[in-house]
Structure formats: C-alpha cells, structure tokens
Amino acid sequence: MASLLHSTPPLSHNQYSSSSSPHSCQSFPCHLPARSKKSTQSYDSKRSLVCQSGVDEVTFTEPPGSSKEDKAQLIASLKLKLLSAVSGLNRGLAASEDDLKKADEAAKELESCAGAVDLAADLDKLQGRWKLIYSSAFSSRTLGGSRPGPPTGRLLPITLGQVFQRIDVLSKDFDNIVELELGAPWPLPPVEVTATLAHKFELTGTSTIKITFEKTTVKTTGNLSQLPPLEVPRIPDQFRPPSNTGSGDFEVTYIDSDTRVTRGDRGELRVFVVS
Fold this sequence. Notes:
Strand 1 and strand 2 form a beta hairpin. The protein is built from four helices and eleven strands, in the order ααββααβββββββββ. The longest helix has 21 residues.
C-alpha cells in the first residue's frame, strides 16, 4: 500500500483532476494572460470575464448589460455636452468662431460614439415637429444661412423668432416653419408672421435626405391673425439663381426620441429637439 502511494505522481495544477469541483476554473487551462497576484486582486470586476465551467468545457461570458449600459451613459453625457455648447447662442446668431468650433467638436464626439444612423430601418424616428436650437450657418447673420436669405440687423427690420421642422413620414411632407417679426414705421406696431416653406422629401441613403421645395405660405399672427394666408409666388426655374435650385440634401448624423443632429450639403450643422 505504501509503495503504491509513493509510485503515483502528484497531479499538477494545470492537469485535469476528476476530484476537483465541477465549477472550479483552476482545473482547466483558461488561456488568460498571466497576471501577478497583486494585479489579479485589483482587477476590475465590472470589466472582467465570468468563467463558467462544466465537466467538458470552459466558457467565458461578459457580465450582462455592462457594455450597453456604459455606452448609453456615455451617449447621454455627450448629448448633454452638445446641448450645453449650443445653449445661449440664439440659435447660432450670436455664435463666435470659438463657439462654432466647440459645437462642431461636441457634435463629432456624439456622432462617433453613437455610430451610423440607419433611417431605412426606422424612418418613424423623423416623424413629428422639431424645434431648431442651433444652426452654424446663422453665424453668417443671414436668415438663409449659407444659402441666399435676408440679412438680420439694421438693414432690414426683421427679427427671427422660432424655427421648426414639421415632418410627416407617410405623406413625405417636410415643412420649414419660421416665425418672423417685421418692423413697421412708427407708430405702427411690428407685424408678426409665420412663413411655411413646404417641401417633399425622400430618403436617398441610410441617413441622407433630399428635400424638394414646393411653395411658401405666409400667415400673419398676433393682432392680424384674422387675415388669410398668402402664398408667395414661386420664382420660375429659368430666373432662379444657380445657388437656389429649390432642393437640397442633408445627412442625419444622430437621432433619438428627443434630439436630432444634421449636417447639410454646405457644411451646416443643425441641432433640433422635439417640440
């Protein structure tokens, strides 16, 4: 009996032992990078792999929900950073060069973290009325941004109010709605109007939208709200300047249930929130 015990070599830690617990990871070659005793003790449990062993195999799984929850928290943080960067800029009319740079960098961080937008799979995200809270093109001090438009300031007594986009994914209607205040000679009060630039839209890629202009309707509000709306005649195509073809493209670079970020075909960055 004694000779039998001495003739049997002891099992090493790297060999399979049938007497070890079926849930022990030390009985299997897990193929993880070697760590010192100190580094193993300080290893972050939230990021570590969970070792699950059976009689015949060992599998490693990531702790449930950790990466998705971390990414969602990061996206929420980056979205807040962008909204903070564009707040107080009067929709971009008061933006300096430094403000434009900060807003663009914050938008790029959010776009990179959230990943590509696929509207082809979820077009309903566009549905609704969106309020413009920032446009990088408004820093040019024209209501048309990088496109032709009336200037703001003392040359024309025009004050820009709220700007909205109303999108209907079923009818493919895409309306830009602009509230304006038009100055009048003293002692007449200013005239408040709402201009609706009606478009049709189509999805030309997973995240690219093409809009085609149809008509402009102007409706007085305030004290003159009883007046009927006025449809502004469309400029014939032969007299339309090359820079104003009546259509345009933009890409939706980020969208969720309450925030949308777009980049226009002329480099314009816009940020919208649900109205």
